[in-house]
From TrEMBL:
Protein name, per record: TlpA family protein disulfide reductase
Domain of life: Bacteria
Signal peptide: 1-21
InterPro entries (UniProt xref): AhpC/TSA (IPR000866), Thioredoxin-like_sf (IPR036249), Thioredoxin_domain (IPR013766), Thioredoxin_ResA/DsbE_sf (IPR050553)
Length: 432
């Protein structure tokens, strides 16, 4: 493990348990089954559900449940009564104590250097599968929210409208919130009278959407983003509502046809689009951050696609903006290993949109992580896509997948320029 601060934290936690090696009291462990957890955010509560399987840490799997979505995490035992659950590629963890009555208490903790004071306390109870309302205590809903809603968000900075696609069956409410940066992943919640609530926790900071059904059928509410600030919104049902075209938000400035940069890979070796290995190739540049859930989902899509199509002449580069190469080796290394990434992963610097624009001056602006840039065999940019719409968005994901594959098939069928370097080496292990 490359991050010394994180290593110190983990070793410290492990050593804290070593003192109990000679203690003959029975070692506690989490009960197998379904649990209901509750984060405390200021004065509000954000519920989440998870399942625990395995009778000891070696075989344990912690699974976050959100509608039909399942996210699995490794469990590490700390001492006789506590566990450490790293949120996979996200630099955060759940740290929990197993209480004498079998409940859990702990916190969701940021592990990012400089942000470790950020945490959310939580408690969890075994055997409770509901999210917001106990069985038998539902109140008849005042309306059915199934459909598409346009959300106007009120923020200090100008924020594009969001789109909510909801499905309601009785009191149960599920759905997804989409914006130019991507989607919220699957949300689960309830409608009680004229009140509604939706929450989601998949590893990154938990979120909650709650509000009121107004007399005129509109919605008003608040978005809670875990450790971060809350924002207000109004919503109107509109089956024709759409987000700004993600293919037109970021583009090359007038006079530019190509993109070029030089960034170090995880070993510190400079990599540039002008390198021979990229000449005459179709190149996918994926601008990501490991802290970004939509970036992770985009990597889940791109990595197997790349591994399947690499022999057709494709090369791809992924890079995130972070503050130190040592830290990037750790975070991006985790992403690479978990999702079997075999393309180059580069380090671009601090995670800041303005910095990305400065380092890629050919772009008119940089709107969101992730952003995908597709370059043809002549080295010319053919398409830039802002954000990522995951499988939960249904038609939006299918449309993206169809257009992505159609464009790549077209570009791969084009002949490479005669001046392109001949390079037939197998690059499948680049970046490893």
């Amino acid at each position: 493990m490359k991050n010394n601060n994180l290593k110190g934290l983990l070793i410290g936690l492990l050593f804290s348990g070593a003192a109990f090696a000679g203690d003959k009291e029975p070692v506690k462990f989490i009960k197998e089954g379904v649990w209901r957890g509750v984060f405390r955010v200021s004065e509000s509560q954000v519920p989440f559900n998870f399942e625990f399987k395995g009778k000891d840490a070696e075989h344990a799997v912690f699974t976050l449940l959100n509608g039909s979505r399942r996210d699995n995490f490794h469990v590490q035992k700390i001492g006789k009564d506590s566990v450490f659950i790293k949120m996979n590629t996200y630099d955060a963890a759940l740290v929990a104590k197993i209480e004498d009555n079998g409940t859990l208490s702990g916190e969701y903790r940021s592990l990012v250097p400089g942000f470790r004071g950020n945490s959310l306390p939580f408690t969890a109870e075994y055997g409770k599968s509901y999210r917001f309302v106990e069985p038998g205590k539902d109140v008849a809903p005042a309306a059915n929210l199934t459909g598409k809603w346009e959300l106007k968000v009120y923020s200090k900075e100008q924020v594009p409208n969001k789109i909510a696609v909801l499905k309601q069956t009785g009191n149960k409410l599920t759905g997804v919130i989409m914006q130019v940066t991507g989607d919220s992943r699957e949300l689960e919640g309830t409608v009680q009278g004229d009140q509604f609530e939706l929450s989601g926790f998949t590893g990154p900071s938990p979120k909650i959407y709650r509000g009121k059904i107004n007399a005129d059928g509109t919605l008003s509410g608040e978005i809670g983003s875990g450790i971060y600030d809350n924002t207000k919104f109004d919503a109107v049902k509109d089956d024709k509502a759409e987000l700004p075209d993600p293919y037109k938000l970021t583009f090359l400035k007038e006079g530019y046809k190509k993109l070029d940069f030089t960034f170090p890979d995880l070993n510190g070796k400079p990599v540039s689009l002008s390198d021979d290995k990229y000449k005459g190739k179709v190149v996918i540049v994926e601008i990501i951050g490991t802290w970004c859930p939509n970036c992770t989902d985009q990597t889940v899509f791109l990595s197997p696609w790349f591994n399947k199509n690499h022999q057709r002449g494709v090369e791809a580069i992924g890079f995130e903006q972070k503050d130190s190469l040592e830290y990037a080796r750790y975070t991006l290394g985790k992403l690479r290993d978990k999702y079997n990434v075999k393309y180059d992963i580069l380090f671009g610097g601090l995670a800041d949109k303005k910095l990305v624009s400065q380092k890629l001056p050919a772009l008119n602006k940089f709107v969101a992580f992730p952003t995908t840039i597709i370059i043809d065999r002549k080295g010319e940019v053919r398409e830039i896509y802002t954000g990522y719409t995951g499988t939960v968005t249904g038609k939006y994901y299918k449309d993206y997948e169809k257009k992505f594959n159609a464009l790549l098939d077209k570009l791969l069928a084009e002949e490479a320029p005669a001046t392109a370097a001949v390079n037939t080496d197998d690059r499948a292990t680049q970046g490893r």
